[in-house]
Amino acid sequence: MATIKIKQVRSQIKCPKSQKLTLAALGLKKINAVVEHEDNPAILGMIEKVKHLVVVEK
């Protein structure tokens, strides 16, 4: 499978707890942090939940 890069571009302040936990599960802790994950349905669902806070590169 392909890998995707996920970059956090907005703060998690004022976000619901579920979105904060999703960012933590993706491995994002700070703004401009970048992580790489496999392109699978679980990760894509997590990205969909916090799509307003992150930018995704294939």
What name does CATH use for the topology?
A: Ribosomal Protein L30, Chain: A
What average pLDDT do the residues reach? 96
Gap between N and C termini:
11 Å
Estimated structural class: alpha+beta
| Tally of helical segments | 2
Write out the CATH superfamily name: Ribosomal protein L30/L7
Main-sheet strand order equals 2-1-3
Low-confidence sequence ranges: none
The run of helices and strands is EHEHE
Strand count, sense and closure of the main sheet?
Answer: 3 strands, antiparallel
- How many β-strand stretches? 3
* CATH architecture group name: 2-Layer Sandwich
List the domain count as a whole number: 1
The percent of residues in helical segments reads: 25-40%
The coarse overall form would be: globular
Gyration radius over CA: 10 Å
Protein name: Large ribosomal subunit protein uL30
Keywords: Ribonucleoprotein, Ribosomal protein
Subunit structure: Part of the 50S ribosomal subunit.
GO molecular function, one term: structural constituent of ribosome
